[in-house]
Amino acid sequence: MEAEILILSYRFTFLRCTLRYKEARDRYANQEVSYLLQRLETYPGLAILTTNLKDSIDSAFQRRVRFSVDFPFPNPEQRQQMWKRAFPPQTSTQGLNYKRLSNLSVSGGNIVNIALDAAFRAAAEGEAVQMKHLLEAAISDARRMERKMTYEETQGWVKSTRSSAPL
Fold it and tell me: How far is CA 93 from the centre of its chain?
């Protein structure tokens, strides 16, 4: 018999509200929390919950979580290994410098997003994935995430990094 797995990727911002509601939106947020807690209590399988806002989870919710696994922010060596694995072997790449890519201070999820974006950019140009595509994708990701990207993070990715990285 196969075990069922329920995977919920949720931004737990709504858990910040208290059980008392002062505004209509708090009432609806409390209803969402109650519904999710009810589903967790009645679900017979394994539930995997993810969040990047662990401090926002209230104690009633935490009591229902049996195990918690923390994934710390990767250091440069770990990011370098992630970059090496970011592209499948069949992906055409050219001149990728994984040491320089590891200077970009992003999580593993961002590395995946940047790599995928760069692959689409390269495919649109009919080229192999290059550092220029990764730079464009990294700039796009930083804008989307509203994250400042420093010159030091992308220094040496392409010849004119300073002029092409406006963030």
Answer: 23
Tokens of 152: 């030091």
CA 47 → CA 40, 92, 95, 114, distances in Å? 7, 37, 42, 29
Number of structural domains in the chain: 2
- Tokens representing residue 54 in the block: 């662990």
Residue 140: both structure tokens together = 């796009």
pLDDT at 38: 84
Domain interval for residue 16: 5-63
Amino acid at site 17? C
Task: Round to whole Å and give the CA distance between 140 and 146.
Answer: 10
Beta bridge partners of 8: 49
Helix (H) or strand (E) holding 60: helix 59-63
Predicted pLDDT of residue 24: 58
Q: Is 23 left (phi over 0), alpha (psi -120 to 50) or beta?
A: beta
pTM above 0.90, yes or no: no
93 with 141, same domain: the answer is yes
